Amino acid sequence: MPRQISITEDTANFWANRGMAGGVAHQHDKYWRLANYNGSTKVALRRQLEAANYHIPVSRRDRRTLAQQLQRHDRQLLSYFGCSVTELQQYVTARGLQLEQSRRSLVNKLVTALETADANPSFDHFLDLPPELRVLIYGFYMSSFDSTLQSPTQPPLTKVSRLIRQESLPIFYNTCTFGLALVVQHKNLPLGVTDSGWQLVWHPDTDLYLKSLLPESLAMTRSFHIQVVTSIGSGHVSDRNARSVFEVRLGNRKKLCVVELVERPHLFYQAHPTVFGRWKDHLETLENEIKAVFQVSSRRVDDQSGEQIPKLMIEDLWAARRKMGARIE
Fold this sequence. Notes:
Layout: E1 3-4, H1 7-16, H2 42-51, H3 63-74, H4 85-94, H5 106-119, H6 131-142, E2 149-150, H7 162-175, E3 177-186, E4 198-202, H8 204-212, H9 215-220, E5 223-229, E6 244-249, E7 258-263, H10 277-281, H11 283-298, E8 300-301, E9 308-309, H12 314-325
Helix pairs in contact: 2-3, 4-5, 6-7, 11-12
């Protein structure tokens, strides 16, 4: 059944997540980077650390230190400020670290040595691990990405070596959710025709992304959101600023294909009062039509093995767009 999100829910979610993006620009290759928190105030940083129960002494609560410690928390690193001197010494000894020669207190030298080592990690024998364990590490790394990736480039990990690329790229496309945006536009008809009607076209970013995506990469995609927006604008497309979102999860032999239509009727409705006239009267039908399209994607037969496997093709996305477009003409 289609689900509606009210403006009250959206506002509550906005304030709950305010500042959590950490000032990272919403660009196609930024989703894997650590937040820099440049746009966050000292108070906001302190509150986030307190909410995470990440210990920082009162004497070290300048803005720069707070931002650095929040980045450590994002990396799931230990806060050394809550450790005893004995514990710090044990960590330093176990890691074979050397302390600086200075007049600073022992605690400061121990913490500095540990944090410096944390900032320059190495994993020299990664490929010595069993493949099954490496796959778990890839999944853990990618689980920290944004909930929906908009036209992303492939993460740097997938470009380290041929072997790591072969192992990690399927994890990226199998586990992440990708945002694909459609824009409502006037149809381009001959000069003199005033009632041109409406059409759905891919957002320029999405169009470029789909054209640059190799068929084998698209085939590995399992989860994606088709977002319907009413203007391109200069802002970042996301689920929250899309009028309608089709949340798609392809099925397999064990799980059914799932499609849920999420509506935000308060978005841009005054600007386009007639565009969604037929759309809103047939939400459940539209949801089922889109589900039928992607059920085909979930049940394709592999040419070599003869087994049914989920395999998304560009033709499936075109078919879904045509189904949606028929409801706004």
